[in-house]
Amino acid sequence: MWQKEYPVLSQDSDFVHGNSQLALLEKELISQSAFEQYQSASDLQDLAKLLSDTVYAGKIESCKTIDKLIEDETIRFRDELYSLVPEKKHNILDAFFRKYDYNNLKICLKTILAGRELNSSDLSTAGTMTAVEIIGCFDEERKDPIPFDVDIEEIKNLYKKEREMRSVDALCDKAYYKELVETIGDTGDEFLTDYIRQMIDLKNILIFIRCKNTGLPQSKFLLSGGYISTAVYDIYESEAGYEAVLTISDFQPYREVIAKGIEALRKTDSYAELETSVRNYFLVLISDLQDSFFSMKPFIGYMLAKEHELGLIKKLYIHIKNRIPFGKEKDRLYYA
Fold first, then answer.
1. Do residues 172 and 178 lie in contact, with contact meaning Cβ atoms separated by under 8 Å?
2. pTM for the whole thing?
3. Alpha helices in 163-269 (DSSP H)
4. Selection from 15-19, 239-243, 283-287, 314-318 with the highest mean pLDDT
């Protein structure tokens, strides 16, 4: 289940042109040595200089916020990917970029629950739906079903009862990952299906640990679709602590991934090392896709690597701006 052999070659000639262009995009990705050099920047001006020979040249200086920079870069690489992938495969890209639609849905729901007016400028344009389409889901005169597997009225009623905004996140996340699992499962691609199921497992492990530390009910947040059944977590819900993830056989496949991070969590009460270990694990998985020619795999690998890189650029910005030291666990990049 955990170590599979996936075919390198596919007979789809539609990918020939796209793969040659993708190779150029991959060369623009930041290397491990370069990223570690960026961490030594004394301030944002120094960081901007270090990034001057990358695709981020001039962008730290020109963007008003780091979030705007990340948004613009996400849209740029998204559009490049869609232009390279055969249209018949766009639904696979849609499945991943739908997370931005669901994030917009969360923003709208929270805005309404807080009694404020919806504003399209608050929404990301990196997803598959426009801001107008997202806001249209809340039109009281709408007759067509919304393109999300959520019940807006149910969420509103739940909030009135609990007064807990985290319920919005939980219900939207469950709906998104359910949709993602179904869409990727329909492709019949073993690697992508395996990747998503492992992603859900590790997200659930983090949810389990956080719920143990905060006392929140894990059933509200756990996602379906992983290799580890949510029933396994139910068995240990009444036990104190989160040690089960290190001692129970169900979690054995991920023990090496989380062990050091959990040790750091115990000592520092910080999730930073644990979350970095999980991110690095998935970078190791997708690095195998660099040699999968003439299929969707390298495009998905690049997409995941680029999103990871953008996350690290934001992390660099925040740490350097606020003079926060970097953790002991080093972030791994697609090109080590």
1. no
2. 0.90
3. 166-187, 190-214, 230-235, 244-247, 255-268
4. 314-318
